[in-house]
Amino acid sequence: MGSRLVVRLLLFSVLAFPPIGVTAQQGGGTSALGVTVGKLQTDEQKRGDAIFHKNCHLCHIATAQKRELKINADELVGLFKRPNTSEPAVRQLIQEGIPKRMPSFRYNFTAVEVDDLIAYLKVR
Ligand code: HEC
Questions:
Q1: Which atom of ligand 1 is least distant from the CA of 73?
Q2: Exposure check for the chain: N or C terminus, fewer CB within 10 A?
Q3: How far are the Cα atoms of 24, 98, 108 from residue 73, in angstroms, in the given order?
C-alpha cells in the first residue's frame, strides 16, 4: 500500500467520524452525567444540576436494575410542567423529606443551593 493512500485513508476517517466530544458539546443541554435534559443556560441551573446529581441521583435516576427491582423513585423529568406541582410544596418536600421514603435535606443545603436545585428542576 502506497503511503499516499494511507494518508488519504487517515484524512477520510478524521473527516467522516469527528471525535465524539466535538458533536456532544454542542447545544449546551448536557448535564453533569451527560444525560440530556432541558437546556442548562444559567449558572443557577448548572449548579442545581450538580447538586441534583450528587444528592438525588441515587433514587431519582432509574437504571435497568432499579426498574427490575422496582426501587426507583420518579425521575422528576418535567416535574414543574405537571399541573399539580407547586414550588412551595417542592421546597417543603426537599426540606422535610417523606417519612421512610425520602430523607430530609433540611441540614444539607444553603438557601442558595435550594434555589439552584429548584432552578434546575424547572428545566429538568
Ligand atoms: C433515598 C432515596 C431518595 C433520595 C436520595 C431523594 N429522594 Fe425524592 N423521593 C424519594 C421517594 C421514594 C419519593 C416518593 C415516590 C416517588 O415519587 O417516586 C420521592 C419523591 C420526591 C418528589 C415528589 C415527586 C412527585 O411526583 O411529586 C420530589 C420533588 C423529590 N422527591 C425531590 C428530590 C430531590 C430534589 C432530591 C435531592 C435533593 C431527592 N428527592 C432525593 C426518594 C428519594
A1: 18
A2: N
A3: 28, 12, 20
